[in-house]
């Protein structure tokens, strides 16, 4: 037997049955005179109610499908007898017939007329009367009959009960407010009920409780307890309703907002149409279309722009993709595709401009003037040279790039590649990345605004590479004239023509530039400057620039020649002039302050005034003050910062023939030291060393400034000289420095960076240097001034080196040495060189 739970629902059906049930209505709430036995029980046919829970006074339409139920109802109707409903414990069981198959509490009901439905089904209306207690099943067939009795309901009017009824009504009221399915009258009706039992049943009937809870309420015979139970269920139900209400309010607000926006937008459109105006988005789109039509794109770029524009046109203005596509089209529009500046190919003009801004640098200047000359003779020459300026910091590489651009009338742009590790920095990220952009090359082209700027790629030797890709491979594409007309950027996805760009790269050293890149570039070396050159640069360019930058007038300040020299020698130590310019700037700042304070300014800054402005000097040319020493030789080194000198120290101890080398030196230098030692061992006899001499000593070679890594073969002869000095105990001449690779047989091989090394020796104040004979060719570019003050001695064998460093061809260890061979130092008792 199935039915609808709610007594307010199915009003039509109720109306249908009203006429039939009318005749019995007055009987419904009247307890019929049942024939009670001696125990106060009566016997009635049983209707088995499965899914449904009916409460007293509740009217419910039910479908009657089961034969057993149909028989019971018919029996009841025919014999004008009350019927009871029982709930089976196991709903699946088909024909429950025993007392234990049912819950012990059932309901007496009134039944309406049976209405025929198709397929032998019937429906009817039932109304609950009273709770009954099942005593037993007295008949199974033809009609299931049960013996029941009606329990007495005693209610005590207590304050608790009154309070309970009030809270129940309040909770019910809230439920009615929140649950749209409940009719508003339900609460009003509940306020008219004074019987607590009926109140609990009426509310349990009305609200949508789970079957389990409904049954619990039905089975509770004590009205006070029933109300308590109901209160608990109502509170739970209220929680659920409030949550549901909160969610639906949010959803509703969202829907309302969207609807409102839609409505307003439609209204706006209507108003704009009325006023003959476009909306903002449509106007932006039409502006964009106009820009695309007018832009001078490459064919491929135009197609891409149009395709993306069409996608944009299809999109609702609020779509998040709109800004991505807009950004992309803007990039296409912002990049120069055809706009070019006209090159000034006048060689004389260019020569003037270059000389105006820079002193010397003839190699770079000549190369540019040649380029301009060829371009002026053959204007159609397409391929641009790719130059690489290599030299120590501050030697004017970047600044002459700027002058070249000025001379040629080109736009100048610059990108520093120092620390670029990610290929995407050069080539951009794909558009699928959030916040993606083109790489630095195209960003800079946008800045240039023309297709033929002078594009400087600074610090190409400081490119890194790691798991994020190799940026140098992307640069290969940029710098290869054969393929840079089709440079592909991940973001742009359209080929970009870089072939009109004049690329100049700069680096401090060629060593760390990947070979493939180096191969594509024409190297122009920027050697460091000698003192005279620095002096000229300071006088011609740096001083006037710093005077101007610090707000002074040329009449305010002038520098003595000795002052600049002192600045060069004692306040800076560099191959270029960057620090010199900074130091000049420092002096100018002090003068500017004096001027601003209205104090006296010295008309000329003399050498002796310098310490007053600058504090004590930072560097001392101490080389010339040194003594001749045993086991110490001066080598010439070449670093990315230009030339420098390195001192090599050797100590011997009583020991077992071990060689220890310290000072962060690389493999090549280690091997050089081994080679030098082997060479000396082979010369043991000439050096007057006993056969077992080397077995009884340990040798420690140290290259100071241990924090700086050093490597390369060029310290070979210096290592050998220091070793010979240490083992023969004959001091090395103090003012001589050397460079050259040594072979096992004592030959001296050529090395790199000669010019830088010679300049460094000159800077330090060394008088004599030894260089490999094969490096003589590198001296051609040496300034006259240096050649005049430095004695440069070419050598091709260690014998010559020994002669010049010890003043004799055969330095010999004395038979009875002047000093005892030192004992190996104990911890905390380290050797001191003397
Ligand atoms: N020959 C020169 N004539 C005039 N000024 C010079 C000359 N060489 C360098 N300078 C000046 O020295 C300063 C430093 O030069 P620049 O920045 O071009 O050095 P750089 O070689 O590019 O250094 P880095 O390798 O550190 O980038 C600039 O102000 C520049 O004008």
Automatic annotation (TrEMBL):
Protein name: Lon protease
GO CC annotations on file: cytoplasm
Gene3D superfamilies xref list: 1.10.8.60, 1.20.5.5270, 1.20.58.1480, 3.30.230.10, LON domain-like, P-loop containing nucleotide triphosphate hydrolases
Compositionally biased residues, Basic and acidic residues: 810-820
First-level EC class: hydrolase
Catalytic reactions of this protein: Hydrolysis of proteins in presence of ATP
Family assignment from sequence similarity: Belongs to the peptidase S16 family.
Region of interest called Disordered, as start-end residue ranges on this chain: 806-834
Family matches, as CDD domains: RecA-like_Lon
Binding site for ATP: 391-398
Annotated function: ATP-dependent serine protease that mediates the selective degradation of mutant and abnormal proteins as well as certain short-lived regulatory proteins. Required for cellular homeostasis and for survival from DNA damage and developmental changes induced by stress. Degrades polypeptides processively to yield small peptide fragments that are 5 to 10 amino acids long. Binds to DNA in a double-stranded, site-specific manner.
SUPFAM superfamilies: P-loop containing nucleoside triphosphate hydrolases, PUA domain-like, Ribosomal protein S5 domain 2-like
Active site as annotated: 714, 757
Summary of subunit composition and partner proteins: Homohexamer. Organized in a ring with a central cavity.
EC number: 3.4.21.53
GO biological process: one example: cellular response to heat
Recorded GO MF terms: ATP binding; ATP hydrolysis activity; ATP-dependent peptidase activity; sequence-specific DNA binding; serine-type endopeptidase activity
Domain Lon proteolytic span(s) in chain numbering: 627-808
